[in-house]
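Researcher: Please predict.
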Amino acid sequence: MSNRPTVLIVDDEMRSLEAVERTIDDEFDVRTASGAAEAERILAEDWVQVVISDQRMPGTSGIEFLKGVRERWPEVIRMIISGYTDPGDIIEGINEAGIYQYITKPWHPDQLLLAVRNAARLYQLQREYDLLAVEAKVAAPVLERQLAQRREQLKRVFRMEEIVRAEGSPLDKICGLTRRIAGYDIVVLVTGESGTGKELFARALHYNSLRADKPFVVENCGALPDPLLESELFGHKRGAFTGAICDRVGLFEQADGGTVFLDEIGEISPAFQVKLLRVLQGGEIRPLGSNQRRMVNVRVVAATNRDLAEEVRAGRFREDLYYRLSVMHVHLPPLRARPMDVPLLAKRALEWAVKLHGKPVKGFTDEAIAFMQDYGWPGNVRELENEVQRMLVLADGEYLGKELLSAPICASGQSGGEELCSTSWANGSLRERVEKMEAHILLEVLIRHAWNKSRAAAELGLSRVGLRSKVERYGLERKLDS
């Protein structure tokens, strides 16, 4: 059985019929008929992809014949050859017959062959589309169930109760606040140092809200220049800029009904701040290169590690946009301000790393946990997760001990200044509290710069002599290289 497409040629003139057959029979299986009745019998018995009919035939014209083909075999691609150079007189019939190609006499062999190739390809594409439509219809209920299961799983994962924290952690109040505001469609600004989990809280806001069944999309505003950021968020029309070869739907439209998380919002330029303000005020977006505005229904959660109030005072951030973004403000404390959370976070990070690397261990030694709690974690939770992963990779035994910790973490535990890495400056006189805080800052900067006096002094705005004086005063001199 041939795999070539089958083409039926219908013409009452034998010479014309043979001419068409000779033109295409190298690439197609050809059937011929001298009239409409014979052609319909072939269509009923054979699998035909393309029909080519002459217009002028005795009895039934080509147009009338192809109208019948459309009714009985609608999937067959229909073509007509006519001596009319202007099809205006029969245009209504052409439309009723759903004719794919109108070819005038005299036709060129290459023109006819190309037209038949395209018709056969169109038939194949239609068939593939129909098969995909059937498969999609069958698979749709399964996909909907899987999507619903995934949503329920995410709702469980991002419950406030699942956010890792110890009893009495500063996060307790923050989780309570997040739970209270999650159900209200207000803009939320999440601030905090890098690595404190701002995106985690943004997802918790979304999956504890009435929008939980709709999309949650993320964009890092500091990673793209203005034109690309505008395209990512609002979309663009084809030809809007070099490389825009097709229309693109932006994240605001993709998230319609859901939540858009704008990370590093403090990095956007003043020009883009104006465009974002317009969206927040009116809920309208305009894709690049388009004259039409579109309404979107999204909740915006923004995040930054900058002090936006200070950025406003410095003239780098619009005051009206700041107040629009900070309808509700959630500030996440750094990890050094909640050392009681470190053991639980380390345990969770270890569970994840074990699954990732397939290297089971039982946990941490008490000494390792103590050292980790004493450390200031300038990189916050992200740094802790990376440290745990590093320890697991280097481990040989069942428990991760302090010998696997990085040098800065070991140094913080050896300083003898246990109180310096904690929040104990909350007690004592004002002078004592200030001194403890100053000593803590000195220690943290020295550790971060691997005890390099010049770099630490430069960051703190001190001279090298001034730094040494303070280090000696707080009993840290034994940690410095001579």
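Model: Residues 12 and 423 are 99 Å apart (CA to CA).
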